[in-house]
Description:
Helices cover 29% and strands 24% of the residues.
Amino acid sequence: MGMVKFDRVRLTGFGPYRETADFTFSDWFNVLIAPNETGKSTLVAGINALLFGLPQTNDEKVFGQARYRNWDHPLRFEGELFCTVAGEEYRLRRDFQTNQFSLAQFTDGTYRELMSGTHNPRAQRRNLRYEEMLKALFGLSSQELFAATFCLTQPLPEADELDGRVQELLSGTGVGFKQVTARLTEEL
């Protein structure tokens, strides 16, 4: 896995984005400032849903189709993620309703499909090939870890609220932040 850069995201029928909404990211740090209820958190959820799928659920309080399908029920409920990994360009398409996806690499002036199929995040038989590809490209295959490390949303977490796996990544030790702090304190 090399350096990962998300170049562009396109969402249709997702949250407040009834029509297609296109977001282009800069090469460095990106900050999205907009009024409340205009889709900032929904954009983050859309990227998460593109990578890991959107569970079919009727509960509007949890991460799933009932929460993020546009309330006008447009015909299209889909998205695309364009990214660059280690200098190579990729495109991931996903139909949120059916969990159908297509992952393609930009080669010789066109996108060539690497894999496609169904990736249902709550399936009993997971699509391990797709999950392995995610891990190879982005360095992780856990939706929770991605959500905890991809970006900061409001409210900002306190140090003791950080996910244990994020603490392990930050400390580089394979153990939690509190354990590292205790050991350093002991050694001092």
